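Q: Predict the assembly, please.
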Amino acid sequence: MSARSLFEWILRIGLGAVFIYAGGAKLPDIEAFFWDIHHFDLTHPDVSIIMAILLPWLEIFAGLALIAGRLYFGAIAICGCLSAIFFGAISTAWFRGLDITCGCFGREDNQTNFPKHITINVTMLIASIALWWLASRRTRSTQLASV
Amino acid sequence: MIARALRESGLLLLMAALPATIMGVWQLKTNKETALEPGEVRAREAKAWATDKVWVDARSRAKFERKKVPGAILLNDEEWDELVPKFLDAWAPDKAVIVYGDREGDAAANIAHRLREELKIENVWVMHGGYDEWSRR
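A: Predicted assembly structure:
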């Protein structure tokens, strides 16, 4: 296994595991996650309900797909988009001075540590971009080789 | 590659929607309203009360200033001494006092207790679910 493949494998497993964990941690208390979304004051309550129900499963499926290497580009796109959305939501909450828990990894009792969560989301976003770049490069090489 | 990513994302979204829908339906069926504690009132009932009422916000000043029940008065533990006179200006013996806090309701229950014990006001209620419940309906 080349250094690049090893790097991609670590990123893939790491990012996938984080998403599976994040989704799984939300499932036992969907109502708490609904309130966490609602407290961001960014979405209508009805939209918050749909997000609270759908998001944990989307995270789990995207994480599993990433680790399994199936629907790979879709999984990377979802992980990247979700990381960007979480980054935006947490940043605006911090900017607006909200005293909230973000619910990113299930129920929290204390106010969210905004810098820590922003760092996590930026790291996940960079990992998604790196995975996309590596995967598209590999796909292009394969296409060229087959011509 | 972008078209492929969109196609695969859509497929993953559909796959996630299946257990999410089952779980959502199951939660709707099993979701029962939690029982009220003595002295509590639900937001929708409090809104519908015909009697005059004073809304008391027991949360922090920062939260009160950001969003509140229209016409509510701030009265929290931290600023109790400074805020009580303003509350007494708005209160009258024939008015019901409805106190709300965060979803957990500890702050509201504490303020309601102080209103009953220290100011001897009897018609005091705690809004179940706090401001969250109000803002949801």
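DSSP finds five helices and no strands in chain A. Chain A has a mean pLDDT of 91.
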